[in-house]
Amino acid sequence: MLQNLGRLKVFYHVFSKGSVLSASKILHVSQSAVSQSLQKLEEEIQSQLFTRMHKRLVPTAAGERLFAVVHPFMQELAGCLKNIKQSREKPFGELRIGAPVEFGKAYFPGMVARFREQYPEVTFYLKLGNPATLLPLVETGQIDFAFVDLFLTQNQFFANLDIYHFSPVVDEEIILACSKRYYEKQIKSDHSFSHLKSQQFIAYRHNAQDVKNWFKHHFNKGNVKYDVVLVVDSQQALISAVKHHAGVGIVASHLVAKEMKEGLIVPIHTPKPKIINQISLVLLQDKVPTLTEKIFQKFLIEKIQSMNLFS
Amino acid sequence: MLQNLGRLKVFYHVFSKGSVLSASKILHVSQSAVSQSLQKLEEEIQSQLFTRMHKRLVPTAAGERLFAVVHPFMQELAGCLKNIKQSREKPFGELRIGAPVEFGKAYFPGMVARFREQYPEVTFYLKLGNPATLLPLVETGQIDFAFVDLFLTQNQFFANLDIYHFSPVVDEEIILACSKRYYEKQIKSDHSFSHLKSQQFIAYRHNAQDVKNWFKHHFNKGNVKYDVVLVVDSQQALISAVKHHAGVGIVASHLVAKEMKEGLIVPIHTPKPKIINQISLVLLQDKVPTLTEKIFQKFLIEKIQSMNLFS
DNA sequence: TTGTAACATAAGCCTGCCTTAATCTATAGT
DNA sequence: ACTATAGATTAAGGCAGGCTTATGTTACAA
């Protein structure tokens, strides 16, 4: 490896201009400085880079070879620095964002599209997943920030949560729901634990973690085996199953607001307060957000809150 | 443009190792020096490149972007320097060579093949042309050296011939020749100027510069208009034309040695000494030849001379 | 609580880069 | 032929900037 990269810059300009003097003007140093730098470089790689002709430097094969490497780099570097610089003045570049699957699927494409209307130079990388997958990505800088919901996975253990900064974005009401027909046939207004625990459940995992969480909250009962009749990978699928009377399931209330109004889907309440699933923006505690990040976060939060999920 | 490229090297290692300390070990400087360099760099581009976490640096988007440019460059640079270095120890890389058309066509392919058997890491770029095109390429470093013959174009004017170094490689005997049948029918042993100048000529240019040079040498007569019946672009074509009794033409004697021995082609002599076309190796006066160049030049000259063009 | 590991900061030294000035040399101009 | 000029190299010395040592800070482990 070369010990002094700075001399490559001198070489680059000398090669480009074919002259020490004009290079020295570009570099704002004396021609002597350029001459000396160049000699040091040649000494270092122990090869002539130019043959000295009167008032002119003619590149040797080694010089040509080196320039072929340095030239494109200088171009790219200049472009890269320009990008970094201009992303301080106006949003620019790729934003790498994590989000829960439902949240991401439901809101992100539209948000991104609308944001890009305003800031067309911003591109996106969207990683969907649960906190267990997203937080490590935030920690290692593989994504810039993430949205996470804490309910469905709230009982999982995360070490070092204090390296993150959480800011609540929106609250979802989490309910246990079933179709009206299922309710009338199976629930019959009996909201006791012993009755409810024997229902047929639609869950997101085979272990029914979401269901367990719901019962833990409402009855303070854990470690119960529930009858999971269907495992789904999305709330939309769950809602569809519920509509078809397949059983009861956990869902964000705003996603079934219409169905509840029409009486197709019925929430199952208990005396305990509602479960609120807090969706938070999470970023590294010490990270100074870039302009692009700040603007997009502001944009996204405003849009989401203006949608008023409880309406 | 970045003012201090050296700091990129520090950045590169810090990014690679994700740690100031381990970068400092690689760079053989103190941990503090690395820390300071990095801060200077961030200051210079006015963007954070890493978010500082406890005992760890996590790259930001800007850092990732910069690394994406610097990383491939460092790889290529290392490779390039390795190449340059090893081309000091054994022949390596591309040789860019100029040669006269005939000379190049006749000898080069075989030479290159045989050389590459011995030094397979050497590749070639061969530019065929006359001195008027080759010398400027040597001067501007676009080819490393060239072989030129001076006879056919000897009367052309070249400025600054003293920036080149010429070393004779081989002497060709240049003759005026025709077929035996043409000789017996048209020349009839009359080698006088007045008789010869009225023959039918095969030449390499419309202006018959080669023919003019021959008459200038043998009779000291210039500025005569000759009857050029055929213009060819190669000695092989000229030889073919001569064999078919089309007229007389200038050719290197060794190219028609066999035909002369068999009596098919006849040279036209005069009392003046033979014309010797000296083929020289030409390189820039001040250029220190690389190992690859020296070895190939030696190889080529030995091969050519061992062929003994006058045999 | 203490110890430790890793990064940041402070202060001063010293290397190495840059400047100025002189020298060299090929070309242009008279 | 003589001089002037322009561009490169060489030499010497000043000084900025990078490096080192020492200290501060902080989170994690024991």
UniProtKB/TrEMBL annotation, chains A, B:
Q: Which GO terms describe its molecular function?
A: DNA-binding transcription factor activity; transcription cis-regulatory region binding
Q: Which InterPro entries does the entry mention?
A: LysR_HTH_N, LysR_subst-bd, WH-like_DNA-bd_sf, WH_DNA-bd_sf
Sorted UniProt keywords: DNA-binding, Transcription, Transcription regulation
| Source taxon at top rank | Bacteria
Q: Does the keyword Metal-binding apply?
A: no
Sorted alphabetically, which SUPFAM superfamilies does this protein's record hold?
A: Periplasmic binding protein-like II, Winged helix' DNA-binding domain
| Gene3D superfamilies, alphabetized | 3.40.190.290, Winged helix-like DNA-binding domain superfamily/Winged helix DNA-binding domain
Start and end of every HTH lysR-type domain? Answer: 1-60
Family in the record: Belongs to the LysR transcriptional regulatory family.
Could you identify this protein by its name?
A: DNA-binding transcriptional regulator, LysR family
Q: Top-down, what is the taxonomic lineage of the species of origin? A: Bacteria, Pseudomonadati, Thermodesulfobacteriota, Desulfobacteria, Desulfobacterales
